[in-house]
Structures are given as C-alpha cells and as structure tokens.
Amino acid sequence: MGVKLGILGLGTVGTGTVQLLQDKTGRHPLLQEIEIYRVGVRSLDKPRAVELPTDVLTTDLEAIVNDPAVDIVVEVMGGLEPARSLILKALSNGKHVVTANKAAIARFGAEIFTTANQAGVYVMLEAAVGGGIPVIQPLKQSLSVNRINTVIGIVNGTTNYILTRMQTEGSNFNDVLADAQRLGYAEADPTADVDGLDAADKIAILASLGFGGRIHLKDIYTEGIRQVSKTDIAYAEKLGFVIKLLAIAKRITSAEENGGTLLRGDAATLSLSPLSVRVHPTLVPKVHPLASINGVYNAILVEGEPIGQVMFFGPGAGAGATASAVTSDILNLVAVLKTNTAVPNPLLACGHQEYCQIAPMAELITRFYARFLTNDQPGVIGKLGTCFGNYGVSLESIVQTGFQGELAEIVVVTHDVREGNFRQALAEIRDFEAIESIPSLLRVL
Ligand SMILES: NC(=O)C1=CN([C@@H]2O[C@H](COP(=O)(O)OP(=O)(O)OC[C@H]3O[C@@H](n4cnc5c(N)ncnc54)[C@H](OP(=O)(O)O)[C@@H]3O)[C@@H](O)[C@H]2O)C=CC1
Ligand SMILES: N[C@@H](CC=O)C(=O)O
Ligand code: NA
C-alpha cells in the first residue's frame, strides 16, 4: 500500500515538490511508494505548472488534515494562520508533518513539537532553513554528538543578493532592492527579508537544534540591512572586510562572561552558560569562509567540539532546491512508516522542553566599526581616542580618509569590547561639539 500525501499549498515550493515526486526515474526507489493524494490550494481556477487528477486539488485544507487516509501532511502554504492550526490538527490526528515554514516553527515550535511528541509523530523541517542545503538533519543527526559552540549563517538569500550587488557595483540599497523585486528575488513586501526577521526565524531554529533548548524569538537582537550604505561598503572594502547579514548563535564562555579572553569552557560550564543569538549586518574579514558567499546563496558555518568547523553551502531558496529538502524529509518519513516502529527515533524527534538563556546585547564581546561625521577641528581624533579609552574600549584603527561636503569622515575599528562599554562611550561622544553625527555603527566578526 502506498504512502498518501496531503500537500497544503501548490506555489513555488509545492509545485517544485510535486514535480520532483512525479519525476521518479533515477531517483530513490522509495519515491515509488508515494501517492499524491490531496493538494490544498486557495484557488481552483489558477493555472498550474503541474498536472494532477481533478479530484486531487481541493480548497478544503481542513478536510486534508482530518482525512484518515492521509499519512503525511506537507505544509508548504506559508504564513502563520491557518498554517499553525492545520499543522497542529494534522499532528493530533496522528499524521507526520513536513514543513518549510520557518515563521510558524520559530513562533509556535513549542506547541507544535509538544503536540507531535504526544501523538508519537514527527515534524520534519529541512526546507525551513537554508532551503535545499542539508543543515537541519546534519545538526540533528550527523553532528549530534558534538558540543556546538557557534552557528553562524548567511541564511537570507535576498539580503545577500542586495549586499553583493551593492558591493560589486557600488550601488545604493534602494536601487538594488527595486531591481531585486523586479527580478523576483525580493518579495513585493520585502520587510521580513531586509529587516532581518526571516534570518531571525532561521537562527532561532538552528540555535534550538544546535544548543538543545527552545528559543524565544523576542530574545533575538535583530537588525536588518536598510541602514547599510555604499559608503560603509567602500570603507569596509578598504579595511579588508565585506559586509554580510549574519545570523549568529554562540555559546558565551565563562571567560567571556567575565570580560576576559576567549577560552573553551568545560562541559558543565557550557551547559549552563547563556547564548548570544543575534542577526545584524557585520563586517566579515575577506579571508573568512563566509566572506565569499555571494548572490542568493546561503551558507551556515558550525563550530563544534570535537569536529571543529564545518560549513554548509548551497541554494537557500527556489523551487527545485527547496523541493529537494521537502522531498528528502518525505522520504525519511516513508522509511519510518515502512519500518513501522512504535518507538520514536530520538534523532528525528525534537524533545526540547527548556528555554535557552540569552545574554543581553550589552554583555556581548565584539569588535565594532563606527563612522563619524565631524567638523574638521584639531584634536577630534585625540578626543575620540581618550573617551573610548575611559570606557575600556581599545582601538584597532582610527582613520580620517574622506570628506562628506564640509564634514570630515572618521572611521574607527575597535578591538574586542563589551558592547555596553562601547555604547556608553558613544553616548558621551555624541555630545562632543565637533561631532555632527554617527551615521554608522556595525559589528565586526
Ligand atoms: N519560495 C522559496 O524559495 C522558499 C519558501 N520557503 C517556505 O515555503 C513556504 C511556501 O512558500 P512558497 O511556495 O514560496 O509560497 P507561495 O506563495 O508560492 O505558495 C503558497 C501556496 O499555498 C496556498 N495557500 C496559501 N494560503 C492558503 C490558504 N489560506 N488556503 C489555501 N491555500 C493557501 C496558495 O494557493 P494558491 O496557489 O491557490 O494561491 C499557494 O499554492 C513558506 O513557508 C516559505 O517561507 C522556504 C524556503 C524557500
Ligand atoms: N526569502 C528567503 C527565501 C526563503 O527562505 C530568502 O530570501 O532567503
Ligand atoms: Na535546509
């Protein structure tokens, strides 16, 4: 008997998934076991790029998740509701779920996984982060024995495309965004991408898997790329950096907590110490592996012990790539159904109950890049240096290279500093008579 799929959504990802499921030659033989039983959509009148028997398409998505014949529900409709309710109903009805919906998982993961565990079924979400890039299953399975210290990703293709073009062409953010929308890379409402919200959803999921606890989205510091200017990209270039929107989840070691130099803590300390989880544009040294990830591509760098660094790279979106992840999840579940084991596989299930402790940004130890516009008076650089010194902020470089009209432009890169100290110094500097404005403030990896 075949495994029956109820697919919710036949847009970009749904269509890619159906195409993959219908094109079985040369792929895994388990595909033969799968029947596309129902596909739920909003409109039956829309032209579709795939052919399906007329009784398969329906607008009654409730009926799909309640149908006893459906074994696996594939949620590729997106959005929060009714996606959340339909996933929960499917799970309560004893169906496994595959989803690409990072927004729903990042917000409702706790109730979704609790419901799945109670019902003894699985929720698979490989497509939710990094599209086609295998990163969820590696974190759950292949790397599960490692003590994860850091997960750093370029997990949003739209913003990486925009930043890459700003870098290579010296263009403005608004011009490239308009172009990206015209070419279909950025959505009509690009808010979730450019304001870092999509990346925050994704790092919440990765952090939860990597560090073994739930993450409250509200605890993730999130800053998008609207403020990144071509001036900063040009300065970064001169200083040996590129600017990337990074999503970072990092275990804070006890040494860092105490403001000391970075040391690897012992197991007991690591399990207790808080995480830093954040999304922001970052100056990345050109020699860093993430610096060369360009265009719509995504990459996720994981650092663990004992493995060291591993990087996952590939297409983070698109019909075929995302369908690859969705369909691999489906195959995993077909294998589960075929082996018919009653005992849940702990490497497929998600059993986290506790929430991770997230450190406030003021406690973050990082380098900073800051650009100041000042009146061109003698002694300004000296005053800046003295004020930073008073707050324990040590400078790696300070340069006055250009002018914006009448105003001199001073760029500072710090050594590792406590963010709270740096901001205290900046508050004082803002009041200097010579300082006109501080147009940019970016963290440095
Ligand atoms: N696009 C991509 O490259 C990637 C997408 N994802 C995620 O995959 C999911 C799907 O994205 P994508 O395929 O791009 O989305 P689309 O907007 O292209 O498709 C959504 C589909 O869901 C259907 N749908 C939406 N809401 C309803 C509703 N209330 N009732 C019935 N049907 C509904 C639509 O029906 P109709 O066709 O009738 O309008 C459409 O077929 C999202 O969670 C997204 O974040 C993840 C990684 C990459
Ligand atoms: N909007 C996302 C695509 C899917 O996750 C992106 O730009 O990366
Ligand atoms: Na993925």
TrEMBL record:
Residues 369-443 form the ACT domain. The keyword Iron does not apply. It catalyses: L-homoserine + NADP(+) = L-aspartate 4-semialdehyde + NADPH + H(+). NADP(+) binds at residues 8-15. Gene3D superfamilies: 3.30.70.260, Dihydrodipicolinate Reductase, domain 2, NAD(P)-binding Rossmann-like Domain. GO terms for biological process: methionine biosynthetic process; threonine biosynthetic process. Pathway: Amino-acid biosynthesis; L-threonine biosynthesis; L-threonine from L-aspartate: step 3/5; Amino-acid biosynthesis; L-methionine biosynthesis via de novo pathway; L-homoserine from L-aspartate: step 3/3. Its cofactor is a metal cation. Its EC number is 1.1.1.3. Coiled coil: none annotated. InterPro entries: ACT-like_dom_sf (IPR045865), ACT_dom (IPR002912), Asp/hSer_DH_NAD-bd (IPR005106), HDH (IPR016204), HDH_cat (IPR001342), HDH_CS (IPR019811), NAD(P)-bd_dom_sf (IPR036291). Keywords: Amino-acid biosynthesis, Methionine biosynthesis, NADP, Oxidoreductase, Sodium, Threonine biosynthesis. The active site is at residue 202. L-homoserine binds at residue 187. CDD domains: ACT_HSDH-Hom (cd04881). It comes from the Bacteria. NADPH binds at residue 102. GO terms for molecular function: homoserine dehydrogenase activity; NADP binding. Belongs to the homoserine dehydrogenase family. This is Homoserine dehydrogenase. It comes from Desmonostoc muscorum LEGE 12446.
